[in-house]
Predict the structure of Glutamine-dependent NAD(+) synthetase.
Amino acid sequence: MGRAVTVATCALNQWALDFEGNLERIVRSIDIARSKGARYRLGPELEICGYGCSDHYYESDTLLHSFQVLEKLLESPATQDIICDVGMPVLHKNVRYNCRVIFLNKKILLIRPKIALANSGNYRELRWFTPWSKARHVEEYFLPRIIQEVTGQETVPFGDAVLATKDTCLGAEMCEELWTPNSPHIDMGLDGVEIFTNSSGSHHVLRKAHTRVDLVNSATAKNGGIYLFANQKGCDGDRLYYDGCAMISVNGETVAQGSQFSLDDVEVLVATLDLEDVRSYRAEISSRNLAASKVNPYPRVKVNFALSCPDDVAVPTCMPIQWRYHSPEEEISLGPACWLWDYLRRSKQAGFLLPLSGGIDSSATACIVYSMCHQVCLAVKNGNADVLADARRIVHDETYTPEDPREFCKRVFTTCYMASENSSQDTCNRAKLLAEQIGSYHINLNIDVAVKAVVGIFSMVTGRTPRFSVYGGSSRESLALQNVQARIRMVLAYLFAQLTLWARGMPGGLLVLGSANVDESLLGYLTKYDCSSADINPIGGISKTDLKNFIQYCIENFQLTALRSIMSAPPTAELEPLVDGQVAQTDEADMGMTYAELSIYGKLRKIAKAGPYSMFCKLINMWKEICTPREVASKVKHFFRMYSVNRHKMTTLTPSYHAENYSPDDNRFDLRPFLYNTTWSWQFRCIDKQVNAL
């Protein structure tokens, strides 16, 4: 009697519409699973076409090419004698579904459409797919001719069913279905399903991993069973980084853990597990057994195949392990670094350019690039041929092997300190010292000539010369002069990104990195089309508080001592004139609030869904020890005025790594108007009425 089943799940770095690359990675994962004795292989959600195809799902080409890849998989010798579970879009009766296609030995066993679609935050699945609403119902699906010719099947089951092998029963879930209150695994488990599978497209958010792990383990803690979780990994073409974390759980305990961040395109977890552990676990839960006796049965697709061997008594099985979580600082060090690597190699550019100001934000961005260089060297040292090939192509040297992160950083990373008459020598020194310690190619330049030229054109045309407020000018004049400096830095950043390597006699161009944090973006504390305007921004979804903690982490783990003085200096834009040679302008004074307060406002606005009045009501209790209600009212009003005045800046925000659930990203995560009535007259009157009552 077969007891020990060997199963595999994986995390694949798929890329939207890269059908050739996606096919290669799927086949490689199946080869690895088979070589380790697995009889079942699970892959990520929509792995054939890539999860992030967006409106390309509307195109018939996407469906056609997905079936062409499926044809190749069915014909591949790698897929023989192993149940393969792959993800792709399928059109059934002119309705598009997000599906799992499960096949064995050139025969499709079942096409299982997704029941609960992800449609919040960054997800828009209802835009492209329809949920399957016929519970425990199966229909005939007529296969395309190219598939019929391979399988010899005209129709296959399509719908909500489970697989019954010779030795066990398997049921599929897909991503969001694990997160819903009434997950399919509940009723499937009651109906005798012993192995649950979940193919996901789940992206990274700081401090999210434990929630995902808890959900997977709790899925089998109350009901018993084996749970396989597969996930996309890497940047598949947009702001999200899918963070792997493939895992296998048995009866509420993790037995196999995949990496959350790595440069490996293919990662396969294989585990051998005892079905009798599931059966004995369930046997003593009387409440579960009573519920099971009443459950409506699922249609079963019979499969003449076993996941176990007849004589397996001596086969060792996997034991529970303790999940190892990354700290938020480690997540910032690794997640955006892996995202940058994917973006760099897939954009076929030669490196990055960063305007390095000597402040916390640009320094944190530089540290993330340095961390990327560490990851590349480590991957090459561990024998990752894909990373080595990509590194050689990026530096245009087929004999090169990256071994030292500082040396590799010199080749792919250019930093540039753009001084003006308002810059201090301190920030210049900090930027230079950090560049030396991480190894970047560093440029010092002065923008005063360009600033004077632009302002001179205005003066020549109008006959008026604007002045800073410290010299008697108005606030409008002062702001305009600050913005000219900021925007000239953006123009120069792109010029140097395009031509720096050319000037050094090297091929290729550089991607410009932005370094505005999530709090500054939320408030709009940035100049539109300044250095925040870049190709990509690795810290645009990270709070100032987390960035400070990350800087401390880099001091301790990368021995970047230059960061100590950067940490201790007050954040400043350095756009206003110096006073006695010292910086007089600070970010928090300009904003009229602290970064800590700004993070709280951001979380209440987005995560707690609080408008001005609700935010006031929450904060009078949260801050009752430090602020009067009238002071709270003043702070809330100031935030909402500033936020609404500057919301238009979010429409041009540089694509940023998504790491925080209160991100103001206007692209698809945080959809709001960008022309507000900034008086908030009704809302503020409600606050005033409550203040007077208090």
About this structure: The CA atoms of residues 54 and 222 lie 36 Å apart. The domain at 328-578 is CATH 3.40.50.620 (Rossmann fold). The first strand starts at residue 4 and ends at 12. The radius of gyration is 28 Å.
